[in-house]
């Protein structure tokens, strides 16, 4: 069945470091892909999305490119800030009944 | 301001009691969802509704019930049959249930603790 796999956390970086959080998926067809962010004690917010192969989603300095050949949607940011500390979720839209399939989440900790 | 509200933010329940979590949206969205989040885990779908007066079970519906009598409201009842109800519950909504418009907007969540 469809699934999403994220790198395990926590990921701990220093401020201004380069960030990559890996996300790979298994799905038939061409699903839409999403990154959501959850700050402590809050609900989730959509960070970025891509709806077809080679699309690049971007927002708040974060980017992710939909790679069909490697079935990946890795999240990147060139220079992280302490305020980026949160849990990041990768998800895909399941075509058969339009449900989101979620990764387990990756906790990101940025130290000053 | 448009958005999704969930109440209460924290909820305590004694074992054997039913409890209802509120979710209201003023985004005019057709679809609404309930998820459960346990520490260190991803989201698991409990129930979803694509239209008023209709809803479907998600992956972990046992011990839960919902209703969708109004477009803007999708309350979740955690019944005494739910074996391990302590968790963080998230409500979400989207314009339609499918296609590229399926961006889901989330409420702030309700943390339920069974004493």
What is the subunit arrangement here? heterodimer
Number of E-type strands of chain A: 12
Through-space gap between termini of chain B: 36 Å
Summed over residues and divided by their number, the pLDDT of chain B gives a mean of 90
N-end to C-end Cα span of chain A: 41 Å
Q: Looking at the structure, what is the overall shape of chain A? A: globular
Pick out the low-confidence regions of chain B.
none
The profile of the biggest β sheet of chain A is:
6 strands, mixed
Strand content of chain B: over 45%
Task: Supply database-style keywords.
heterodimer, A: mainly beta, six-stranded mixed beta sheet, 12 strands, 0% helix, B: 115 residues, mainly beta
Structural overview:
- The complex is a heterodimer of chains A (112) and B (115).
- Chain A is mainly beta and 112 residues long.
- Chain A is built from no helices and 12 strands.
- Chain A has strands at 3-6, 11-14, 19-21, 23-26, 33-38, 44-50, 56-59, 62-65, 75-77, 86-94, 99-102, 106-111.
- Chain B has 115 residues and is mainly beta.
- Chain B has strands spanning 4-7, 10-13, 19-25, 31-37, 43-51, 54-57, 64-66, 76-78, 87-94, 105-106, 110-114.
- Chain B is globular, with a radius of gyration of 13 Å.
- The relative contact order of chain B is 0.32.
- Chains A and B meet through strand 6 and strand 11 of A and strand 5 and strand 10 of B.
